[in-house]
Fold this sequence. Notes:
This protein is an alpha+beta fold and 144 residues long. The chain contains 1 helix and 12 strands; from the N terminus they run H-E-E-E-E-E-E-E-E-E-E-E-E.
Amino acid sequence: MDIMKGLYAAVLTTMLVLSGCLHEQPETATSNTYYANDADASATSGASDMLMRLDLRGGDSLSWSLTTITLSSGDNVFYCSLGDDGDCKITQQGGHDDNSWEPGEAIFLRESGTDICSDSGCYVNIHVGHDGNTVSGDGSIIVD
């Protein structure tokens, strides 16, 4: 019987230690926030319209290798990239590091061969992710 009590105590101690370890893991989410604004260009039926400006606020730079930006309009989802291989192109303005989106830096999203907004007043949902977590910010914008 004493062996069973000792085994039970060992298992209970192990469970408590493991549960403490699980709760002490640091969060990987950023505390940054982005703000979206219309880019002051008119939406057309073309496929190269400047759509919006996103400004980042907070304390963390977001590495482009871990950052994703997607737009959606209606049932369509559009992927943004720094190069020409996405549905929309990301261009940076005002930062010092081309490998990350820095606090205080503005980025612009432009159609890249895909007509995302055909008319003025187009409603676009925005999703910014970093390292598998959602970055808080304006979830949508009307592009005029």
